[in-house]
Specification:
The complex is a heterodimer of chains A (338) and B (684). With 338 residues, chain A is α+β, with helices and mostly antiparallel strands. Chain A is 38% helix and 19% strand. Chain A folds into two domains: 2-88; 108-335, 2-Layer Sandwich (BirA Bifunctional Protein, domain 2). Classes of the chains: A alpha+beta (338), B alpha+beta (684).
């Protein structure tokens, strides 16, 4: 009997020596202690077959063996666990690059368009979706630019036929808003406009504008200045100053050219603003009484103002993009920078 | 308009530096674009807007400065006496179209010596960008610059009947202008005739036949007022814009005709030896009344948002040549100077006052808010799409809206026709685009050329075509393009190529993000620019809302794209109809779900869509998910077959599922697949 026990002990020690990780530890444990198939549990099952007088001694011996095995396994468990934990904590080279999750980018002009929409919505404006293909009436006539008006010269137009054209500005919003809405009106149109300019570094036959129209009772130029200031400060920076100069647009009177303090030198004067401290940014004015009347607004009761701004110029100014064509070539090396 | 400060000083006392003048003029609406120099004197380059023809000359600019600085305006010296003694040369002026020529003033001088004009005059003309010719022509140009009124001098001896007839041209009439070009005239154009034929196109350019030459001894000086729209029309029609037409079409001053002529007469006497031989004839059949406007102080206040004093109003307007007559305590009747073509309404006067008061001095204030802001109808959809696609690695493209003939041949519109631009810039831009695909493909090509390996683009923009009534129309579209490695080659990833299922996966994600729960992607053969291998339509119910697939091999080769390109185009408005279905919340299940994978073998012809929908059609309430997790074709299964591994997910919301119940469900599914598609379980 002792021989058998000793043999079992030797065998166990040999097996235990092969344990390197949790898996081999478990297999050794199961080999000796599994409820059904374990060698020790198997030996204990033989107890029944032994003569009655041998049973206590065998039982006692086997229980001792079992206790020893359990203890030895427990010790081993601690070391295996320790080495396994340390293996799981072995450092990797965290300086290698991460998985390249690709992130796209919004087009700088479209992004700006969305920002501008947000600014106007916050100021109580309704953003209208208006067609790019317009009639001569909405684009010119109703804006006090009848055929043969000299101001049309500056806006060389793409025509489809005698009446249909590609809008040359978003200012048609003035007329559409007056026709479709009742004062108080605060409306904005934003999007593509077209002029028959050759495609080169500083011109594009397609570009983007935002036009704004406000028609309410008792509106005056001070209101226009106030709203312009807020808009331009939100668009550029809170310390942006604005300056109005007289300007001419057939659909407004008085008309104004609006400058902002130079975004590069804050007005001190630099090459970007030709040392003037100011950058011309948009055209504005109180809506011409004729334009109000043509669209059925009672100009004795309501007055309004409007302004229009080229959007493409903003990223050109802000980021120094030196060729307008880059906006329409979709070079990913360009787009990914925004 | 180039204004030399040295010359300007003849008309108003200017002590300010050029920089100060630039600033001051800009603040009253005369933008000085630059300060240059000519003959040692600074020159202001003034941009005069089209409503202010009165400022297209020295006296006009001086008038503004005199009002601004409150200094007297000095008018040029003129010949006061415009009669001849004796009246030696009879001539006649006849206006046959008083609408197009309301006033024509003439004068004949003899004893002319044609020679170069004096140096000082030549220098001034050169500074203004004009080429000196001879004293007579130079004098009329000089007076044009000085006083703004275009004049014309005819060689009187060339006028065949010694008379001037102002009349419309005969249809088909021709004449050769001073620049040596033969001009075809039409019946709308106003001509100056000598009784036998044309000698000038009124307000635009003189005829070569009546040009001043070295031998000219007698001249007829014309100082007329022509209707702006008529001059503009003629100038445009002939493609001929001159200093004269530029001013007439913006509006000359009919009352400046005689003073300008008197000035010319003065200069010709001094510089060319001329004497008046035929006295002034002023033919003025249609008197034009000066514009009168009622001005109310209250209206000034309400338009500017602040009051201006009566004194300020009166002194400013008078300084600019307006005449004011008091009408009650706070109102005036204002008579506008005839040079001010821009004066029509009270608002025009108020602008003038605001300019001189200073826009910068009007206090800024926000108007009270009476409206709530709303985004455009497309904003939510467009921004949601943009955010999803950017998050998935796609960058937003923006192409010009034009298309070429080749674009239309290669990417013909699926529905409808195209619209053509009547006056395109180039042949490549003669149509409006009917699809976003060619622009995206060209953008991909550009990126391939610059060695970009991971090309992901999308564009949200309009496409165009005739509406049902034939009128050009437009609609929004979403275009998506993918090419190159799927995730970019790197040390953990061998980079599979972008393919149809990447694009399809993206569209599925997009539909999920837009809460469009039910849609189908079906093969199609209707799109010539897609590869028939994977060309597909995106459908919701019976509505086809878009297309997807890879670019046809022929176009791939033509654009030399080096790698497969997949693209999709979705009709934005149709998509909008289905997007953002209401959120339907379901409480989370309390019991665990069970997954069962099964590999079935079916014929290659069996489309997955049919299997998926067939299983879903069994309507087993506990079956909550069907996924395709593996596809195998190869030697382990009979040829012509494909093995699909499906993962079915079961979930009972009321209790834990037992193994037996799950097996029952699986058996039901297998029985269905076997019956419908002859599918069997793949033996491993």
């Amino acid at each position: 009997m002792n021989d058998a026990i000793e043999k079992l002990q030797r065998l166990f020690e040999a097996d235990l020596a092969t344990v390197t990780d949790m898996e081999t530890w478990k297999s050794v444990r199961d080999k000796y202690l599994a409820r059904e198939s374990g060698m020790i549990t198997g030996e204990l099952k033989r107890l029944r077959d032994l003569p009655k007088e041998e049973r206590p001694a065998f039982g006692q011996a086997m229980n001792q063996v079992r206790a020893m095995v359990e203890e030895r396994l427990q010790e081993r468990f601690a070391t295996v666990k320790k080495s396994e934990l340390s293996a799981r904590q072995r450092p990797i080279d965290v300086t290698r690059p991460g998985f390249p999750f690709a992130l796209g980018s919004a087009h700088p002009i479209k992004k700006l368009q969305a920002e501008i929409e947000d600014i106007f919505v916050s100021m109580g404006f309704q953003i209208l979706s208006l067609p790019e293909i317009e009639t001569d009436y909405y684009n010119f006539e109703a804006l006090n630019m009848p055929r043969n008006h000299p101001a049309r010269d500056a806006q060389d137009t793409f025509y489809f036929d005698d009446t249909m054209l590609l809008r040359t500005h978003c200012t048609s919003v003035d007329v559409h808003a007056m026709e479709a809405m009742k004062p108080p009106i605060r409306a904005v149109s934003i999007g593509k406009v077209y002029r028959r300019d050759p495609f080169d570094a500083t011109h594009s036959p397609m570009f983007h504008q935002v036009d704004v129209v406000v028609i309410e009772e008792g509106l005056h130029m001070g209101h226009m200045k106030g709203m312009l200031e807020v808009f331009l400060q939100r668009l550029f920076s809170p310390d942006t100053r604005t300056r109005l100069r007289p300007g001419f647009f057939p659909f407004v009177e008085p008309g104004a050219e609006v400058d902002i303090s130079c975004i590069f030198c804050s007005g001190a004067g630099c090459p970007k603003c030709k040392q003037s401290g100011w950058i011309e940014i948009l055209g504005a004015g109180m809506i011409h009484p004729k334009v109000l009347r043509m669209s059925g607004i009672d100009d004795s009761r309501f007055s309004g103002f409007a302004w229009g701004m080229g959007i493409d110029r903003v990223p050109i100014l802000k980021y120094g993009v030196d060729d307008i064509r880059l906006f329409f070539e979709n070079d990913l090396r360009f787009l990914k920078q925004f | 308009m180039k204004i030399s400060i040295e010359w300007l000083k003849e008309y108003v006392d200017v002590r300010e530096s050029p920089e100060k003048l630039k600033e001051d003029l800009s603040m009253i609406g005369l933008l000085v674009e630059a300060i240059s120099e000519s003959n040692g004197s600074p020159v202001l380059e003034v941009e005069v807007t089209s409503n202010r023809p009165d400022c297209l000359n020295y006296v006009g600019i001086a008038r503004e400065l005199s009002a601004l600085y409150k200094r007297p305006l000095k008018n040029p010296l003129i010949q006061e006496k415009l009669t001849a003694s004796p009246d030696r040369i009879p001539y006649r002026i006849e206006i046959r179209d008083a609408d197009l020529c309301p006033r024509y003033v003439g004068l004949v001088m003899d004893g002319i010596r044609v020679e170069p004009s004096p140096q000082w005059m030549q220098k001034r003309l050169e500074a203004a960008g004009m080429r000196p010719l001879n004293n007579i022509v130079d004098i009329s140009n000089y007076v044009l610059l000085e006083m703004g009124h275009p004049l014309h001098t005819f060689d009187f001896d060339v006028l065949r009947q010694g008379k001037i007839v102002v009349a419309r041209a005969k249809q088909g009439e021709k004449m050769r202008t001073l620049d040596g070009t033969d001009r075809d005239l039409d019946g709308e154009m106003l001509l100056i005739n000598d009784g036998e034929g044309p000698v000038a196109i009124a307000g635009v350019m003189g005829g070569l036949n009546s040009e001043i030459s070295q031998s000219t001894k007698r001249v007829l000086i014309e100082s007329a007022y022509f209707q702006p729209a008529s001059v503009r029309r003629t100038s445009r029609k002939l493609g001929l814009s001159t200093e004269a037409s530029y001013r007439f079409e913006r509006g000359a001053d009919w009352d400046n005709t005689v003073p300008a002529l008197a000035r010319t007469c003065y200069l010709i006497e001094k510089l060319a030896g001329g004497r008046i031989a035929g006295g002034l004839q002023d033919v003025y059949p249609k008197k034009i009344a000066p514009v009168r406007i009622a001005l109310h102080q209250d209206h000034v206040t309400s338009l500017l948002g602040m009051p201006l004093t009566g004194d300020f109003i009166e002194s400013t307007l008078r300084g600019l040549g307006f005449q004011l007559e008091k009408r009650g305590p706070n109102a005036w009747d204002v008579t506008c100077p005839t040079c001010r073509a821009d004066m029509e309404l009270e608002a025009d006067l108020i602008e003038e006052l605001a300019c001189f008061y200073g826009y910068q001095n009007i206090p800024a204030i926000l108007p009270p808010s009476q409206t709530a802001g709303t985004h455009s109808s497309a904003y939510l959809l467009e921004n949601t799409i943009r955010n999803i696609l950017i998050g998935q690695g796609y960058s937003e493209a923006l192409n010009l809206s034009f298309a070429s003939e080749a674009d239309h041949r290669e990417f013909p519109p699926l529905e409808g026709d195209r619209v053509a631009i009547k006056n395109p810039l180039t042949e490549d831009t003669q149509y409006m685009r009917t699809t976003l695909a060619p622009g995206l493909v060209r953008s991909a090509k550009r990126n391939v050329n610059f060695d970009q390996r991971l090309i992901r683009l999308f564009e949200i923009g309009k496409v165009y075509g005739p509406k049902a009534d034939g009128v050009p129309g437009e609609r929004h579209a979403l275009g998506i393009l993918g090419a190159g490695g799927f995730a970019g080659q790197n040390w953990t990833n061998p980079s599979p190529d972008y393919g149809f299922f990447h694009l399809r996966g993206l569209i599925e994600a997009l539909m999920h993000g837009l809460r469009i729960r039910s849609f189908n992607i079906k093969p199609t053969t209707a799109v010539s620019w897609l590869n028939p291998r994977d060309a597909a339509t995106l459908e919701i119910g019976d509505d086809c809302i878009g297309l997807l697939g890879s670019l046809s091999p022929a176009l791939e080769d033509k654009y030399k794209l080096k790698q497969p390109v997949c693209l999709a185009e979705i009709n934005f408005e149709r998509l909008a109809k289905y997007a953002f279905s209401p959120v339907t919340y379901e409480s989370l299940p309390k019991y665990p779900s069970v997954e069962r994978d099964m590999s079935i073998v079916v014929s290659r012809d069996t489309v997955y869509h049919a299997i998926h929908d067939g299983i879903a059609g069994l309507k087993i309430p506990e079956l909550t998910g069907i996924e395709l997790i593996d596809v195998y074709e190869g030697e382990k299964i009979p040829s012509g077959n494909v093995s699909l591994t499906l993962r079915l997910t079961f979930q009972d919301r009321e209790k834990t599922l037992t193994v037996d119940r799950v097996q029952d469900f699986v058996d039901t599914v297998l029985a269905f697949l076997n019956k419908s598609y002859g599918a069997g379980l793949r033996s491993l």
